[in-house]
Design brief:
By secondary structure, chain A is α/β, with parallel strands linked by helices. Chain A has helices spanning 12-15, 24-35, 52-66, 95-112, 126-146, 154-158, 161-169, 177-188, 191-194; strands at 5-10, 41-46, 73-78, 86-87, 90-91, 115-118, 150-151.
Chain lengths: 198, 198
């Protein structure tokens, strides 16, 4: 099956916040797929500040409306950075709740649609990045157990001068067009994404 | 007040279906605003095939999550073409129900957010265009009574060879990049849209 409609579900990085071209990594990978001759419908369901807990309450009604039966829909999830933000002295979502939320979301999603997951990216905060990296490893394990492909973009982007410089120059969290292009390239090269189009 | 987050709520034309650049008219007008120095967050809530009845049941939970209090959010609505499609011998939504739905949606929205409305565009079907033009006039009247700015793009696009040729060449309903660019230009020149950014 070739995927014909895709929902990207997640946070501000899915939304593409900060990108002056308003494509983010999600719009860029859809445009690249279209250039290969596939007629893909693109639904961006990234919301700023949302944690895994927020996403767990709304992803299903939002995605279901956009991927009706018979339309060959798929979902790409990406979230986690907001879970690891410290507010009023503690993380917004306790580590074990983030893992539980991811497991619950992905288990339900997998029963309904083809599903992929992309790791949260790094920001300009060393402490938060350590927590995000740890959470990403847990998300990878959840996906492994559910046989859902998981792409770690965290490591590559943390080593990317383009990503880290743009994040620091904008708001400390989000890159500009070149950073999002780099993230898009990582996803485009991913065999699990490519396998949706053939 | 300058609008900082905008939700575009509507159908496939809001989604940008058919645009190989995955911006549609909505992404293009946000990119243009950004070039003027405004840092706007862009939420696209267009869903293919949705009528005014479909939109009335989901616009509020979807927009509320994306425009929390204090974030200076606004909503641009655009729908109507799917209401006027003939299926099994009759229009999908009776004319008076479309008007009632629009009135109900816009009345609630206006109490919560700054609101604009853009007319449905023409497609490659003369009979449907006549129905859409008639519905658009009714929507204009609803907006007038609610003091919500309404932009008629139908007339200009029906006279646009670029729009009509691209629609005919693609799927009979949706244009490609040049058509969406033309629609974007109409909205960009609109004083009510410009007034959101100053």
């Amino acid at each position: 099956m070739t995927i014909k409609r895709v929902c990207f579900v997640g946070d501000s990085f899915v939304n593409g916040t900060g990108d002056p071209e308003y494509l983010g990594w999600t719009g860029r990978i859809c445009a690249a797929i279209r250039k290969q001759g596939y007629d893909l419908t693109y639904y961006n369901l990234g919301i700023r500040r949302e944690t895994s807990a927020d996403i767990s309450t709304r992803w299903l009604p939002e995605a279901s409306r956009r991927l009706p039966e018979g339309c060959d829909g798929g979902i790409v999830f990406s979230f986690g950075v907001n879970d690891t933000t410290i507010e009023q002295g503690k993380g917004r979502i306790p580590f074990k709740d983030s893992v539980k939320n991811a497991n619950q979301i992905l288990t339900v999603a997998k029963g309904l649609f083809p599903v992929l997951m992309v790791s949260p990216p790094p920001i300009a905060d060393r402490g938060q990045n350590m927590r995000t990296a740890e959470l990403s490893q847990q998300f990878a394990e959840v996906c492994h157990q559910l046989s859902i492909p998981y792409l770690d973009v965290f490591s590559s982007l943390q080593a990317s001068k383009v990503w880290m410089d743009e994040v620091a120059a904008y708001d400390g969290a989000h890159p500009s067009a070149s950073g999002y292009s780099q993230m898009a390239e990582l996803v485009q090269r991913w065999k699990a994404w490519q396998a949706w189009f053939r």
